[in-house]
Design a protein that fits this description.
single chain, 4-stranded antiparallel sheet, 10 helices, about 40% helix
Length: about 250
């Protein structure tokens, strides 16, 4: 499996922009394809409203493999996400090898086994078992996308650090733009998967085993695991859950 080289992409600043045919474009080493370059016809035909409203989390999958060209098409859409400083601090590792997926599950099991020894969790056996179920079902999917994040330090962060602002206060004032950016990419990844006829589920519970999974997948610091997304054809009909109406969550001032 290809090793992620975080040094090649971890940037404190946005990628250098160059002019090409009168349009600002990322330099060749950090190039992002235009929407017209995305090779998937089903994605180009998918309506935004249907793709967004029809998506739902899927936890049961058929064994049908996910073609790598479809995986590429999903990621091509994911990297169009809005992100802080255009730093594009996300990295993706698509795992379609069953043995590697099983090893990822063992890593999560071992992390939860360790938690079960904590005296503070005495008598929480049912909760731990429920956590195990919801943290390991990704292994049932034919494809598991591991999503990694690289550090992002903006000018505002540098100023706060120079003033001695602590991590907790800095996170309160900055609200983790790195994780916000990666979350935007994961949302687009899941939406693109749905538009292509796949199901997916945005998972963070497997991050309990982040150090072991990072080592297993050959990902070196400073990249860190932030999410796991199983992807495959749904084993049952996909039914979106209800959502609060805009009037319940929106205010005008």
């Amino acid at each position: 499996m290809q090793t992620i080289d975080p040094g090649a992409g971890a940037a404190r600043r946005p990628p250098r922009l160059v002019k090409r045919r009168g349009v600002a474009a990322a330099a060749a080493s950090d190039s992002i394809p235009a929407m017209s370059d995305v090779p998937s016809e089903p994605l180009s035909q998918a309506g935004l409203l249907a793709a967004v409203q029809g998506r739902a989390s899927v936890r049961r999958f058929l064994a049908e493999p996910v073609p790598r060209e479809d995986v590429t098409a999903m990621v091509e859409l994911a990297v169009r996400a809005a992100n802080a400083g255009n730093a594009q601090m996300w990295r993706f590792v698509a795992v379609d090898d069953a043995a590697t997926q099983a090893a990822m599950r063992r890593a999560v099991d071992e992390a939860i086994d360790e938690m079960a020894t904590w005296p503070e969790l005495a008598g929480r056996g049912k909760d731990l078992q429920a956590l195990r179920v919801y943290a390991t079902f990704f292994v049932e999917a034919p494809l598991v996308m591991a999503v990694f994040g690289l550090p992002y330090v903006s000018r505002a962060d540098e100023m706060l650090l120079a003033h001695g602002v602590g991590v907790a206060d800095r996170d309160r004032l900055r609200a983790r733009p790195d994780l916000q950016s990666i979350g935007a990419a994961v949302q687009l990844l899941c939406t693109a998967a749905h538009a292509l006829g796949y199901g997916s589920c945005w998972m963070t519970a497997p991050v309990l085993a982040a150090p072991a999974i990072e080592e297993l997948l050959g990902v070196r610091p400073p990249a860190k695991l932030v999410a796991v997304v199983p992807i495959g054809r749904p084993a049952a009909a996909v039914t979106p859950t209800s959502r609060r109406r805009a009037a319940e969550v929106l205010e005008f001032r």
